[in-house]
Write a structure and sequence with these properties.
Low-confidence stretches: none
Number of strands: 0
Shape: rod-shaped
Helix content: over 70%
Radius of gyration: 19 Å
Largest sheet: none
């Protein structure tokens, strides 16, 4: 989770953009579609990494709040 997921997502987006551009330059429609699909996959991974980070932060805040309520640290 975290930075590795973000790098993986960014890599998919970049690779997809490269494939899309190469497909457009070479008039290879299937490569354009493949590139767009890779970019979409990267976007989904990016969103998933954000959700995981948010859930982890929320869980930690909740755990900290419970500890404060019970007086334990």
């Amino acid at each position: 989770m975290g930075i590795d997921d973000k790098f993986d997502a960014k890599g998919d987006k970049l690779k997809g953009k490269v494939d899309e551009v190469i497909g457009k330059v070479t008039d290879d429609k299937s490569r354009v579609v493949k590139g767009k699909a890779e970019q979409a996959e990267g976007s989904l991974k990016d969103t998933a990494a954000d959700v995981k980070a948010h859930l982890k932060d929320s869980a930690e805040r909740s755990r900290d709040d419970r500890r404060e309520d019970t007086g334990t640290l």
